[in-house]
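Contributing new records

If you add data, match the layout below exactly. Sequence lines come first and carry their own label; structure lines follow with theirs. Keep one chain per record. Anything else will be rejected by the validation script.
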Amino acid sequence: MTKQYLGAEKVNLKTENLKKEVIKILKKHGLSSSHAVISANALINAELVSAYGHGLSRLKMYCERLSKKVINPKPRIKIKKISQSISHVDADNCIGFVAADIAIKKAIQNAKKTGIGLVAVKNSGHYGLSGYYAEQAVKKNLITMIYTNAPPAIAPHGAKKSLFGTNPVCFGSPTGSKVPFILDTSMSMINRGKVRFAAKNNQKLPKGVALDKFGKPTTDAKKALYGVQLPIASFRGSGLAWMVDILSGVLTGGNHAGKVKDPFDDFSGPQNVGHLFITFKTNLFVKNYNSRIKDNIRTIKRLPKIKGVKEIMYPGQNKYKRFKMNLKKEIKISKILEKDLKILKN
């Protein structure tokens, strides 16, 4: 877990002790015990899969938003039943982890009853990694698709101004093995969390992922935050980001078309992020899905490999390996983050 901390001193902390600290900090900032545990679990999971930009580097931001009451620490969350399969959650501007936790569990419950679960969420906030929630559905032998929108970062194709978020697309499927297929990818060349993390730790960005506010290519993470992040695959990535904005924003009742507030810089009100969770049984059309998906993966893995590649990996394999490896170690945090934790505790 050293890549995150190039050029920075680091401190080792035991996972459970760190989780307890995070829970205490979130409770101090107004969350109930149950909501603090849900949030801490998601943040620690991000650290364990090496998704540092979605982990503890965001804790200070969540606490600031709780303190300024733009995250509601005592929400009255409402779940509207539209049908046996479909539910609509009004998260009452709660912390996004809690809204997503409720929604994925409801989607799973609906799918187990009827074969498919469709849950929309409005009035939520940033919820961390989509893949974290996808794994919950896959563990119940369900296929899932998850969408969420985000603050402006990508310019629509042909525009100078950023408007779409990095707007991740997530797909999860059982594989017939203990390692799930989890594709969780943003529509930008690099996710926003990595840009923020690089800016905070004075690290350079790779070439070709961002422009500054003048439209010039930059590797300076701080300049990229005030400029434009480039979408994957040019106009195709821009189109996919637009699709996610429609599915998670327009459809759900959440903010859309650039109206999702930046959680780090805009404290003028709640974000009103929208999420869409879709889950369904693997045996809706065929009874032997597990054997078919195993055959699918086996066929692809047997393809001739290019030089330097030992194994063709499916999405989720590397993440699972990182999780299992990191779970055996103490979590390493930078001195900067250690300082933030001390301030938040006092």
